Amino acid sequence: MLKQLLPDLYVPSVYDIDLEALKQRGVKGIITDLDNTLIEWDRPSATPELAEWLKKVEHMGFKIVVVSNNNEDRVRRFCQPLSIPFIHKARKPFHFSFKRAQHMMNLSSREVVVIGDQLLTDVLGGNRLGLYTILVVPVADTDGFFTRINRRIERIAFYWMRKKGMLTWEQEEGRR
């Protein structure tokens, strides 16, 4: 079970992802979480820095779909001004939303990466489908109720992964 929670890559933020390296791997599409991955869970819209990063992603030829467990109003308010397709109430880590996003981009599993801030939703969901998974440090220090529960479970998983020598990074900086 721990292997299903292990991301392929761990970075401090989306800005630290080497997009050129992803292109060289044959990646053409990005499935990304919204809350605490791209922006704080309680921020309604993109920061100027994030809007610029999203333009860069698009300019480099990547397709992108936001897949969020949050409600339609929340996700639409963020995605619509940026013209980003989205899936709300995704029920991650269940596979159907990841498959739907992949279908929306018309890409194979080897051409898609999943970016998220949670092991139990984003990484587990992506890994179950054989997608390349990238874990980022949450952008906010606060979380909603259910996410706080997930964070406690994550700490236990990180402990056991570290104990078994599965982690390839020094420590999960900023992880709560």
UniProtKB/TrEMBL annotation:
GO molecular function, one term: phosphatidylglycerophosphatase activity
Taxonomic superkingdom: Bacteria
InterPro entries in UniProt: HAD-like_sf, HAD-SF_hydro_IA, HAD-SF_hydro_IIIA, HAD_sf, PGP_Pase, PGPP1/Gep4
Protein name: HAD superfamily (Subfamily IIIA) phosphatase, TIGR01668
